From TrEMBL:
Signal peptide: none annotated. May play the central regulatory role in sporulation. It may be an element of the effector pathway responsible for the activation of sporulation genes in response to nutritional stress. Spo0A may act in concert with spo0H (a sigma factor) to control the expression of some genes that are critical to the sporulation process. Keywords: DNA-binding, Phosphoprotein, Transcription, Transcription regulation. Residues 123-219 form the OmpR/PhoB-type domain. Residues 123-219 bind DNA. This is Stage 0 sporulation protein A homolog. The keyword Transcription applies. The modification 4-aspartylphosphate is found at D51. Residues 3-115 form the Response regulatory domain. The lineage of its organism: Bacteria, Bacillati, Bacillota, Clostridia, Lachnospirales. InterPro entries: CheY-like_superfamily, OmpR/PhoB-type_DNA-bd, Sig_transdc_resp-reg_receiver, WalR-like, WH-like_DNA-bd_sf. CDD domains: REC_OmpR, trans_reg_C.
Length: 219
């Protein structure tokens, strides 16, 4: 059974999210104090939802502490929507944002989309120039050295690389990668692309090209 962890200091919101996710068949654990998190159980979860604004240890701080220990998607639930916060969350390894107030339909759709992406079967390796993609393990390598992409960054790179030369809008990329076309999602893709470029530039490659007014393509 798919197991999800939800961390939020508001017990009312925790109960609403837990009931919504349990109706979808997910086993849902809730925690109202991030300091009580049992780090030994982190790998039991297939997805983690973190509130950003919590007293003491906020969602960003908690993400920094656990990102190296877990490989599952981390989604932020937050009322903070300015670009700086978005950049921070995605830059430290978050995969997506759910903005408060949110509808339960949107919550379920985003969670399901990320879980579907995790469960896709992949069996091949492709090589583009000095970069190679392991579609089975969802890794990108430069001359044998792994580039440390997050899952969302990898998914965007794979989509663009497999459709090399084609131009895709930010909205189209989001819809394909995450399976849910919601308002405001294009800004998340913009920040993911920035992170992807920064990591690729360390290896001296820049295959992601901006087509102004349209979107992005893999050269």
């Amino acid at each position: 059974m798919t197991r999800i962890l939800v961390v939020d200091d508001d017990r009312g919101i925790l109960n609403v999210i837990r009931k919504a996710l349990e109706k979808e068949g997910y086993q849902t654990d809730t925690l109202d104090d991030p300091e009580k998190l049992d780090f030994r159980r982190l790998n039991d979860y297939q997805l983690i939802l973190l509130d950003v604004m919590m007293p003491g240890t906020d969602g960003f701080s908690l993400c920094r502490r656990i990102r190296d220990q877990v490989d599952c998607p981390i989604l932020f639930v937050t009322a903070k929507t300015d670009e700086a916060d978005l950049m921070t969350g995605l830059g430290i390894g978050g995969d997506d944002y759910i903005t408060k107030p949110f509808g339960l339909g949107e919550l379920r759709a985003r969670v399901a989309a990320h879980l579907r992406r995790e469960n896709r079967e992949r069996k091949h390796v492709i090589t583009l120039g000095e970069l190679s993609f392991s579609l089975n393990s969802r890794q990108v390598f430069f001359q044998g050295a792994e580039i440390p992409f997050t899952k969302s960054e990898y998914a965007i790179c794979e989509y663009l690389a497999l459709n090399r030369g084609q131009v895709f809008s930010k909205e189209r990329i989001y819809e394909h990668v995450f399976g849910y076309d919601g308002e405001g999602d294009s800004s998340a893709i913009t920040e993911h692309i920035k992170n992807i470029r920064a990591k690729l530039q360390k290896y001296g490659v820049s295959p992601v090209e901006t087509v102004w007014g349209i979107g992005y393509k893999w050269k």
